[in-house]
Amino acid sequence: MAQQGRFKKSNKNDDFDLDSYLEEQAHQTAEPTQQIVDEHEPSFLKNAILGLALVFTAFLWYHDWSPKQAYASIFGAEEQRLIAGGQTGNQIVIDIPEITIPEISFPESRDIQRAIEQELARASQTANLPPVTDYLVQLKELGLLDDDKLSAFQARQLHSSGVPVSYIQEVDNAGFLDDLDFVAISEFYNNDIPLSYLSEFEEAGFLDKVSFIGISEFYTNDVSMDYLRTLDQAGYLDDLSFVYITEYYKAGVTTTFLDDLKAKGLYEELSFVDIVEMYKDENN
Fold it and tell me: If you compute the radius of gyration of the chain from its CA atoms, what whole number of angstroms results?
């Protein structure tokens, strides 16, 4: 009403200042808005602080009111503590997370030395071999370059692998040249597998059951013929690869254990890694 009266009164006044009146009206209109904003800000801040306090309280309650457990649930509990003392006697506690260093397995020195010796011997013998033409001539003169023995292609591959003519002649004298291809001959020669070891497989009747790679692996890993005979008698030699047999032999897995797994219907469901680990768990 005061404003209305002032407005009416100003209509009769010739000195009415319109600019001053509009400025006064604008100032009076802005004051309530500013007051509303100022009243709203403290309320929002209080609600935010209250909400955070409730969340923090619930988090501590969940961890039995233990700040240490709450910290561990977020950053982990595996840590070490370093305590340092200052000049004033105060202690500084520094939590150091545990660092896990993975295990690194290295080949045995015996295997490394053997591999080096084989490579050096192979390089030396390859260098000492005659040219491939003379190599073929020597084989032909010995009656080894024949359709029933070696083809020219096979002889050239043996030359490339560094197999000397003398070793091929030994293989033939032992009666294995007709049964072995050039890949097997190269494998046996480069791995220093004696022909007497092949004779043991022949006598046991295993040459047709074990591949040349298997024979090489068995020799390298010292798999005994007795273990192979036991597997053969139990009916496992034909079914298992040389990798399985080698790992079973290293772990000491018995045919009795394999029979028990088969009787329980688990043999076909398990890998050789499972069988080895299960055997170790039950026998260690």
Answer: 45
